[in-house]
Amino acid sequence: MQQQKQHLVRHALIVAAITALTACGGGGGSADSGTPATKAPVVTLVRGTAASGAPFAGATVTLTDVNGTQKTTTAGADGGYSIDVKGMTAPFVVTATGTTGGITATYVAVLADTVSDGETKTVNVTPLTTAIAALLSDANNPLDMTDLAKLKAKATPAEVKKVVDALKSVLANVVTASGADAATFDPVKSAFKADRTGLDAVLDTIKVAITSDGVVLVNAFAPIAENQADPTAAPAPSVVLTRGNVATPPGALVAPTIAPSTVVINRLQEQLNACFALAADNRVTKTGPIVTDLKGACEVVDGFDRALYKYNGYTLFQWYGGLLSDPAMDGAIFGAPEILTLVKTAAGAEQAIIRLPYKRADGSTGHVMDMAQKISPATATDSGWRIIGNQLDYDVAVEARFSRGNNPANNGKIAYQSGLRLQFNAIGLAFDVHQVKVTGPGLPAAGVVLARSSSCGTANYFAVANKTGDLSVTATSNVSTSFALSGAFADGSSYTWSSSSPNFASAPVTDFSAFKPFGRYKFEVYRSASDKKAEFYTRSIAAPIAASYGPSLHGRSWVTAPRHILILPMQRLRYWCRPPSTGAVAHWHRMWTMC
C-alpha cells in the first residue's frame, strides 16, 4: 500500500546566479586583469515527480512544447525527473508512461507558464494532474493535450488556473487534513516528499476515475458501509468535475475520517518479496496440484490471518495457491500495497479493499485484489491490520467491461461496447444452486437471472438466462455472462441495439453519471424459484463508461486480462465455457476489465 512506500521524492534544485569575478590589484597599482572566470551554463529546467502515491519508477517521461519540440528522460526510483527546456516554448505537456500498481498507465500534466532562462519550474505528473488535463479537453481525454493544436487552444494560463482552482476547491478539506496549506496547494507545482503528508497523503487519499461524464474524485479514507451492513448505504464519498462545472465547482469532499498513515499491514511488501525470491518448489508444499502449506520465507509472512481468511468461499491456500505454485512468479517483486477504499462494518470494524501489485522477472505485471481488516488495537510494533479476504461464501464478481472490436457482419467496422460482467461460479456451496438473481446499478429493477448453461457440457457454468427476474428458468442455452449497457461505432453511424436479447439492456444507457466507483450489487441465490438459499452483496471496483467514449480511449490502459486469470489456483484458472462454432459472429479483439 502507499503507506509503506520507500521512495524519496524530489528535492528542490537551487540554481545560483554566478557572476564573473575580476581580480583587483592593491596598493594603488593598476588593475590586474588576470584570467577571466568562466560563466556557469544557464540551466532552464522543468522537473518534478511522477507518482500515483507510489513512485512511477522507471517511467518514460516525455515533455513536448507547443511547437512540437520533444525531450524524453526516465524517472528515477523516487519518481523524480528533470528536463532542460532552454529554447522551448510554453505551453508544455508532460506524459509519464510505465507500470504502477501492477498496471501499465500514462499520466499527463500541463504547464501553461513560460520558463525563463535560468529558471526551474515544478511539474508533477500524477493522477491529479491527469484529471486537470482531462478537464481541459472537450472529450474528457487527457491525451488530447498531446495534440499540439488542442494544447495551444486549451492550455492557456487562464483555463489551466480555472481547472486547478476547481480541483483545489473540491480537495480543500482533504489537503487541510494532510497538513498542507489548502490556499497554496497546487497539484502540478507544489513540491512534496514521500513522508505521507502534504501532496503525498492527498495522492494516497484521492482515487481518480476519468469517465465519459467527467472526472470522478473519490475519498478512499472516508469509509463506506460494509457490503452486508446497510442496503441503503451511500457509495464512497465522491465529487464529479466536468468542463461545465469547473467555474462553479460542487462542494468539497469530506475530510478523511481515518488517517492514511494508520492503515499499515506490517512488513507485507518486504515479506512477500522474500517469499517470491524463492523458487516455486521452495515456496509451498503440495498434495498433487493442491497447496497444503507454506515453506521458508513464505511461512513467516504474517500479514494474512490464516484462520480467518476466506475469499469467495476459498481458503488462503486455495485463493493464493496459483500464484504461490507458479514458476513464472519466481523472482516477482511486489510493490507497495494500495488502499482502494475503506469500509466500516455494521459492528464498527475497519476494513480496506486493497490491491497488491507485482512485476514478474520477465517484466510482465499483475495484481491481486483483497480485503484487510483491523483485527486488534495498534501497538508500537503491530498495526493490528491483517488480510482476511472478503468473507463471502460464494465465488462471485461484478466487473465493468469495455470492448473494442470489429464485426465481419458489418464490413469490419470498429465498434465499442460497454457493460457489466456478472460472475457466479458453481463450486463449493453452490453445488445445489440453480438460479441466481443480480440487481444493482445499470441492471433492470427486476434483476438479471443467471442459470446453468446447457451448452457447457457439465452445466456447471452460469450464464445470463433472462433480464426479467424470472426464476422459473432451470437452464439456459446461453453462454454469455455479459450485460451490455451501450454501444457505438467509431465512425458515428447508427449502432443496432439488440433490445430483445437477455444480454442487452432494454434500451441503451445514455446517462452514465449515476454510476460510481465501488457500486454495490445484490446476489440472491436459489435452489429453486421458491427456495432462496442466500442473499449477499458485492462491489464493482470501477464504474462502467459510455461506449461513445471509445474513440478517445486510444493510448489508455486497463488490466487486459480478467482478474481471475491472475490469482485463482492453477487447477481452476477460468470457469470458462466455449460453445461449438455456429458460424460468423462478432469478433471482439480487445477487452478491458476496469479495476
TrEMBL record:
UniProt key word Signal: yes
Domain of life per record: Bacteria
UniProt-listed InterPro entries: CarboxyPept-like_regulatory
Family annotation (PROSITE patterns): PROKAR_LIPOPROTEIN
GO molecular function, one term: carboxypeptidase activity
UniProt KW keywords: Carboxypeptidase, Hydrolase, Protease, Signal
Classification via SUPFAM superfamilies: Carboxypeptidase regulatory domain-like (SSF49464)
Annotated signal sequence range: 1-25
Protein name: Carboxypeptidase regulatory-like domain-containing protein
Organism of derivation: Noviherbaspirillum cavernae
